[in-house]
Specification:
Structural class: alpha/beta
Number of strands: 13
Strand content: 15-25%
Order of helices and strands: EHHEHHEHEHEEHEHEHEHEEEHE
Radius of gyration: 22 Å
Helix content: 25-40%
Number of helices: 11
Shape: globular
Strand order of the largest sheet: 3-4-2-1-5-7-8-6
Length: 360
């Protein structure tokens, strides 16, 4: 009936809230009805839901103005309870259970914590519980927060090996020109090896969320490169999710086509570890050419020219060329002191093995 078996659905703040910032209960109810329909027909759904901060903001009338961090913590603490309770009641009307998963960016930096989260969501799906995931804004440190839930949804989609990530926004997709112009049309498909859309993307952020279309585009390209379809569609359209899941869907949206050679689960984790790197490894032109060539190659010490930062064995580091351009990420085999001793040496074991190397 549907073209996928497991999907992640990210619902943005602008879909879940009204213009005045209050929670749009009617829209939430409609989306829950759609997810319930998908689930009843055998499709596994992981829900990444924004709206907690906006929900809390509409609930509280503060007498004193708070700083950005404090207000976000307060609004999310109140709003998260309100939001998950709403989901709980709505899913229960369909005879379904949902469960809340609050996470932080730091939880994805450790392979152990990463796998622990994966196991939790897997157990929920196996027992027909719908996971509702959101960032734990009450304890997130500003410097380590997700760009927005688009970034979180990309991590969840990759971690859970979904077949498709659906990002529901308040627009139909990515346009070939400014969306405000009548002549602009939605780009229906974006291939993973092209950059044709980037020049037209609006850099403004959404009204209630932290991100914008550029964030969605960047995340979508990375997730698609891992072999996962990514669909950006309008979450305010009636029955949008079941329509998108049909094999011959005619819904106006933007689909990022998945790469045909999906990468391993470990490489998927490394691909999304940009925010957790502990050091930098600089390589020469010959090493760069070898890594970017068609033949699978590990990063050998002979091609390394400099090492910066302090890191331990198995930490994630950036790989940069002689001009300082990042070409990839990798999990190191040595700590920084041992790695420095090996710089330029021939015949030594790889500093980063191919199996733990992700190239941008």
């Amino acid at each position: 009936m549907y073209r996928f078996k497991r999907i992640a659905v990210k619902i943005g703040s602008n879909v879940l809230t009204r213009p005045d910032g209050t929670l749009d209960v009617t829209r939430i109810s409609a989306l829950v009805d759609q997810i319930a329909e998908l689930r009843k027909n055998g499709l596994e759904v992981i829900l990444i839901s924004s709206g907690a901060v906006a929900s809390g903001r509409s609930e509280l009338k503060l007498k004193n103005k708070l700083d950005t961090v404090s207000s976000r913590q307060l609004f999310s603490a109140v709003g998260q309870a309100k939001l998950i309770n709403r989901y709980y009641e709505l899913f229960r009307e369909h005879g379904m259970a949902c469960g809340q998963i609050l996470t932080t960016k730091e939880n994805f930096g450790s392979r152990k914590h990463y796998l622990n989260q994966k196991n939790c969501i897997t157990v929920m799906l196996e027992n027909k519980v719908i996971p509702v995931v959101n960032e734990n804004d009450t304890i997130s440190v500003t410097e380590l927060m997700f760009t927005d839930n688009d970034e979180l949804s990309g991590l969840i989609a990759s971690m859970m090996n979904v077949e498709a990530l659906v990002i529901l926004s308040n627009v139909d997709g990515i346009y070939d020109g400014p969306p405000t112009l009548p002549s602009s049309k939605v780009i229906s498909e974006i291939k993973n090896d092209k950059e044709e859309a980037v020049d037209f993307i609006q850099t403004t952020k959404s009204q209630f969320g932290r991100g914008g279309m550029m964030t969605k585009y960047t995340i979508a390209r990375k997730v698609a490169s891992e072999g996962i379809s990514v669909i950006i569609a309008n979450g305010k359209k009636d029955n949008i999710l079941p329509q998108l899941m049909k094999k011959n869907s005619t819904v106006i949206c933007t689909t990022f086509l998945p790469a045909q050679n999906p990468i391993s689960n470990v490489k998927k984790w490394i691909a999304h570890s940009d925010g957790f790197t502990k050091g930098e490894i600089y390589i020469n032109a010959y090493a760069k050419e070898a890594l970017l060539g068609e033949k699978a190659t590990s990063l050998l010490p002979v091609g390394v020219t400099d090492i910066k930062g302090e890191f331990e064995k198995d930490d994630i580091v950036r790989i940069l060329d002689e001009k300082g351009n990042q070409i990839g990420l990798g999990k190191v085999r040595y700590d920084n002191e041992k790695a420095k001793e090996l710089i330029g040496k021939q015949g030594a074991r790889p500093i980063i093995h191919y199996d733990y190397l992700y190239l941008d």
